[in-house]
From TrEMBL:
Molecular functions per Gene Ontology: (R)-2-hydroxyglutarate dehydrogenase activity; FAD binding
Keywords tagged on the record: FAD, Flavoprotein, Oxidoreductase
Recorded name of the encoding gene: LOC125539704
Protein name stated in the entry: Probable D-2-hydroxyglutarate dehydrogenase, mitochondrial
The keyword Flavoprotein is assigned to this record: yes
Family membership noted in the UniProt record: Belongs to the FAD-binding oxidoreductase/transferase type 4 family.
One Pfam entry name: FAD-oxidase_C
Cofactor requirement: FAD
Keyword Oxidoreductase applies: yes
Region listing for Disordered, in residue ranges: 41-66
Length: 623
């Protein structure tokens, strides 16, 4: 049945937070009593991207009720079509302040606890809480990881030194607050750090690292802690250095669209800021409400706009980075072209904090275009999805801004676990769903183009059914389904996540093979950024089990390598895949990476046990 409602609307995206953070997570515990608010429109250097509110302190004060996140997210991003914040009586400042007050003071979530439904007994047992001993991350086939005995153990003199640099508020030893920073949002990776540091400036980061290097104290750099591979939490007792307090917008060049800001700015706040200037961020992720730009860059995050604007390697113009020994490397250029020697910034894009800590960023932001359309379509088979992608590239060309796919299992999961979303298509035997977004500069031309494309695709049998969002809330609902799959997947109990680059024509084969391998023991989901050849393979079960894992690994890595794919398209290697790098990189490449690591971080203090295999590093540095 054809159900094409051919009406256009402007884009609206719901704001999807990683669940534990929405419930009052790490950001809730960072800088709870902050300096007076600064409106993000005020671009004088040093003004806050996340304007903290004086309304926030002190705890125990009466608070307004928590806001409706989904609706606020829509309002924020819909400002191009006459539903601006101002029309709703909200300013960005109000919005952000309200968010922070919810995060900061939501009383029932102020103490640490793993996300509901995830921290099974198995999970708790699989990680030994006393540091200095073997740790095994559950859901991983890896051997337990020994603490490297060459690292020093934190003592009271260290803490006193950090207090002399960061002040009392910048040095957190409170058990509950440190516990939140020790665990990732899925409750899957858990460290045993005793110390969380909250620097406010590059100079402070530099002093902290210089000291840690001289003492050989291991460090884990942390942003919004929204990663999926255990890269942003400690493995043992590493000191956590969280950049969330460095959240200022430094400048915006509104002729060239170049944003310069500190690393701790939350992506969604940057989006709101640049959208008010008539630009957009070149990347967009489901975790935008929590993730920070420094973390995005350190992990080379891909996301939903990659098909249109490409990778951060292309969009990041400059960086300021603090090296392991405290040296500040100023590469904060805003030039589009600069061919003077090696382009060192690329070493830090995607190296997951193992070579330095990103403290400032300059990034190219594309112009915001006025006309956006979102279509939600179903296809009968995977071949139709592939053909549809090719047809979309040919017919929609310059206006195509997203091409995302999901199988039916994803839709079922989203409908079961996400609040307030509904399947816009009739419940049916469709096996695949595709979300297509177009963004262009001419509303009637763009709309006509998309409509013609969809009608043709239906006639050709590529599309079985579909809708085009007629208003902001429909568009928001479509995006919420796609962006919410990750969040919904952790609600089942246990989730094994793989993030693979595979040639598009083979991409769904591994999902089907995996289904037959795990049989009834687990549910297998396939979704992702089809336009980028990026599959998210999620395997869900009620609890973690070595038997299920044995069906998945090493098969998933061998299969991917056998098809010349990558075992990490966009999530990075982190702890989960540090020992698997050889499936995607040659021994020579891994050796060169290890040499670079040793050159730049000879004491191996930065994010140990992550990214590179122990065998590639020398014994005393690699454990
Ligand atoms: O959770 C996942 O597996 C994928 C998360 C994210 O990269 C997405 O595209 O939704
Ligand atoms: Zn993704």
């Amino acid at each position: 049945m054809a159900l094409l409602s051919l009406l256009s609307h402007s884009r609206a995206r719901s704001s999807v937070l990683r669940e534990p953070l929405r419930q009052g997570g790490l950001r809730a515990l960072l800088a709870p009593w902050a300096p007076p608010p600064v409106h993000p429109h005020d671009r004088a250097a040093g003004h806050a991207c996340t304007p903290p509110s004086t309304e926030l302190s002190p705890p125990g004060r009466a608070l307004p009720p928590p806001l409706d996140w989904t609706r606020l997210g829509s309002r924020t991003i819909s400002s191009g079509v006459g539903t601006s914040l101002a029309q709703y009586g909200l300013t960005n400042h109000t919005l952000t302040s309200q968010r922070r007050s919810y995060w900061t003071l939501c009383p029932q979530h102020s103490s640490f606890g793993p996300p509901a439904g995830i921290a099974t007994k198995e999970a708790q047992h699989s990680v030994n809480d006393s540091f200095g001993v073997q740790r095994r991350t559950f859901g991983s086939a890896a051997e337990p990881i020994q603490r490297n005995p060459d690292y020093s153990v934190l003592n009271s003199d260290d803490v006193s030194y950090f207090k002399s640099i960061l002040g009392d508020n910048g040095v957190v030893q409170d058990k509950d607050r440190v516990a939140v920073a020790n665990v990732d949002w899925m409750g899957k990776y858990k460290g045993a750090s005793q110390l969380l540091l909250l620097p406010k400036s590059t100079n402070e980061v530099s002093k902290v690292l210089a000291y840690c290097d001289s003492r050989r104290l291991a460090v884990v750099p942390q942003g919004g802690n929204t990663g999926l591979v255990g890269g942003s939490v400690p493995v043992h007792d590493e000191v956590i250095v969280n950049l969330g307090g460095m959240d200022k917008i430094i400048s915006f060049d509104n002729v060239n669209g170049i944003l310069t800001c500190e690393a701790g700015c939350v992506l969604e706040n940057l989006s709101t800021f640049v959208e008010n200037e008539g630009f957009i961020m070149p990347l967009d992720l489901g975790a935008k409400g929590s993730c920070q730009i420094g973390g995005n860059i350190s992990t080379n995050a891909g996301g939903l706009r990659f098909i249109r604007y490409g990778s951060l390697h292309g969009n990041v113009l400059g960086l300021e980075v603090v090296l392991a020994n405290g040296t500040v490397l100023d590469m904060l250029t805003t030039l589009r072209k600069d061919n003077t020697g090696y382009d060192l910034k690329h070493l830090f894009v995607g190296s997951e904090g193992s070579l330095g800590i990103v403290t400032k960023v300059s990034i190219l932001t594309p112009a915001k275009l006025p006309s956006t359309n979102v279509a939600f379509l179903s296809c009968n088979d995977y071949m139709s999805c592939q053909k549809l992608l090719l047809a979309a590239r040919r017919s929609l060309g310059e206006i195509l801004s997203a091409f995302e796919f999901m199988d039916r299992q994803c839709i079922d999961l989203a409908m079961t676990h996400l609040e307030g979303v509904h399947n816009p298509l009739p419940v049916s035997p469709y096996k695949f769903y595709v979300l297509i977004e177009t963004t262009g500069s001419d509303e009637s031309y763009d709309k006509a183009k998309l409509e013609a494309f969809l009608l043709r695709s239906m006639e050709d049998g590529l599309v079985a059914d579909g809708v085009i969002a007629q208003d902001i809330s429909q568009a928001s609902n479509f995006w919420r389904i796609r962006e919410g799959i990750s969040e919904a997947s952790v609600k089942v109990g246990a989730v094994y996540k793989y993030d693979l680059s595979i040639p598009v024509e083979k991409l769904y084969d591994i999902v089907e093979e995996m289904r037959s391998r795990v049989g009834d023991t687990a549910e297998v989901l396939g979704y992702g950024h089809l336009g980028d050849g990026n599959l998210h393979l999620n395997i869900l079960s009620s609890k973690y089990s070595d038997n299920i894992l044995a069906q998945i690994e090493p098969f998933v890595y061998e299969w991917t390598a056998g098809h010349r794919g990558s075992i990490s398209a966009e999530h990075g290697l982190g702890l989960m895949k540090a020992e698997k790098i050889h499936y995607s990189k040659s021994p020579e490449a891994v050796q060169l990476m290890a040499s670079i690591k040793k050159l730049m971080d000879p004491n191996s203090i930065l994010n140990p046990y992550k990214v590179l295999p122990r065998s590639a590093l020398s014994p005393e540095q690699g454990n």
